[in-house]
Specification:
By secondary structure, this protein is an alpha/beta fold. 28% of the residues lie in helices and 26% in strands. It is globular, with a radius of gyration of 23 Å. The structure holds ligand LLP. Homodimer.
Length: 421
């Protein structure tokens, strides 16, 4: 699946040498591999081929239109969490009838738009949200298909910022309280109860928390059936980890077998919401070393990418692999570098304590940057956001221009001020 490989001592994205990309489009920039994204999506789709299913790619992981478009062409559905993500899916040619809408704070306007375009399902996360959705649907004379998102109270064993299925988290409805909410949903005009949904967290390296949650939810489905509430689909969320360093995530085949073993006899359509596992290892952040700085304490490689471009190391202390695009041989000494950016924060690092042989001007690739990379970028320190590129065999497509400085203040105004006060 790895489409970023060294060829003749030069790192390539598919068949494109990364130095040529840096020369043509500048740095920092994100480079994705079409082949890697498509292959990862197909692995999921094939693993569930024996059972009625729909892969609803989690748009938040990488929402570039070209990425969404290539997934839409494969027949993918989409998991969205905002009106903005819905508009992206539509602009990219995605099918609204394959869209599920998650998120704890859906506004009336978002509900209206989603009902108008006819999405597949709302993953409702609270009782007040259910009441609001019923009112909006009625006002439009439509019916909203609904899953309730269950909070199964399992420990997903991941970073606390990306755990979502514990009872202390803001997500979903407590599994012990949800039957009453289902009965309410079944009574509400404007609501069609169709599914049950859970998503317990992200970068899950163990499968047991997911199967635990699944078993609890299947028992719930049985209890609902006993009360005359028929469930036709089960959304098992996303969350399967990728390897950044030495993690050993379950293979997608194992994941699918574990889920399907518990679902076999049931006529339930399975929805999946993978994000990271589709795009994570399909992208790199390409950056150039501006300076090397050696202090009494540390060696710094100061690069042109920063925490505003790639936030994961600063926010989660995430470890992401960094390698030289053209590894040096022989004479350059290896040092333990902190790879840091230009932003005025000590949290502005991409990596710490990495053995690298570097000189100013060298190119580095931060690996596994296809998910939660560009999408989490900002303009902090008035830094234009980087370009995004898609490698497709020997062709490289610019899929988002580097921002120019005007874009930094687009929407801002100089105003006519009266006399000083
Ligand atoms: N479904 C729902 C309802 C979600 O909240 C998420 C991710 C997914 C699916 C996709 O999860 P995945 O398959 O990508 O693990 N920024 C963090 C990750 C935040 C994940 C938020 N929810 C990071 O960089 O690690």
């Amino acid at each position: 699946l790895n489409n970023f490989t060294l060829r003749n001592g030069v790192l390539h994205a598919e068949d494109i040498a990364l130095p040529s990309v840096a020369k043509r489009f500048g740095t920092p920039c994100y480079v994705y591999s079409r082949r890697a994204i498509e292959a990862a999506w197909r692995v999921f789709d094939d693993a569930f081929a024996g059972h009625d299913h729909l892969i609803c790619y989690a748009v938040k992981a990488n929402s570039n239109l070209a990425v969404l478009n290539l997934l839409a062409r494969l027949g993918s559905g989409f998991d969205i969490v905002s009106g903005g993500e819905l508009e992206r899916v539509l602009a990219a040619g995605g099918d609204p009838a394959k869209v599920v809408f998650s998120g704890v704070a859906k506004t009336e306007a978002e509900m209206r738009r989603a009902l108008e375009v006819g999405i597949l399902c709302f993953n409702v996360e609270s009782e007040p949200e259910l009441e609001r959705l019923a009112a909006v649907a009625q006002s439009l004379n439509r019916r909203a298909r609904v899953s309730l998102r269950i909070n199964p109270d399992v420990d997903p064993d991941t970073h606390p910022y990306i755990a979502t299925g514990l009872s202390e988290n803001k997500f979903g409805i407590d599994i012990h309280a949800v039957e009453r909410v289902y009965r309410r949903a079944a009574d509400l005009p404007g609501i069609d109860v169709t599914g049950v949904d859970f998503h317990i967290g992200s970068q899950l390296t163990r499968i047991e928390p997911i199967t635990d949650a699944l078993e609890r939810v299947l028992a719930l489905i049985d209890r609902l059936q006993g009360q005359g509430i028929e469930i036709s689909h089960l959304d098992v969320g996303g969350g399967v980890a990728i390897r950044y360093r030495d993690e050993t995530p379950p293979s997608i085949g194992t994941y699918a077998r574990q889920l399907l073993a518990r679902l076999e006899s049931r006529p339930l359509r399975v929805l999946l919401e993978p994000g990271r596992a589709i795009v994570g290892n399909a992208g790199v952040l390409l950056t150039r070393v501006e300076y090397l700085k050696h202090t009494a304490q540390r060696h710094f490689a100061i690069v042109d990418a920063a925490m505003n471009d790639l936030l994961r190391p600063a926010l989660y202390d995430a470890w992401m692999a960094i390698e030289a695009v053209v590894p040096r041989e022989g004479d350059t000494p290896t040092r333990r570098y902190d790879v840091v950016g230009p932003v005025c924060e000590s949290a502005d690092f991409l990596a710490r304590d990495r053995e690298l042989a570097l000189a100013a001007g060298d190119l580095l690739a931060v690996r596994s940057a296809g998910a939660y990379g560009f999408v989490m970028s900002s303009n902090y320190n008035s830094r234009p956001r980087p370009a995004e590129l898609l490698a497709d065999g020997e062709v490289i497509h610019l899929i988002r221009e580097r921002e120019c400085s005007d874009a930094l203040w687009a929407g801002e105004r100089l105003v006519m001020l009266g006399p000083e006060r």
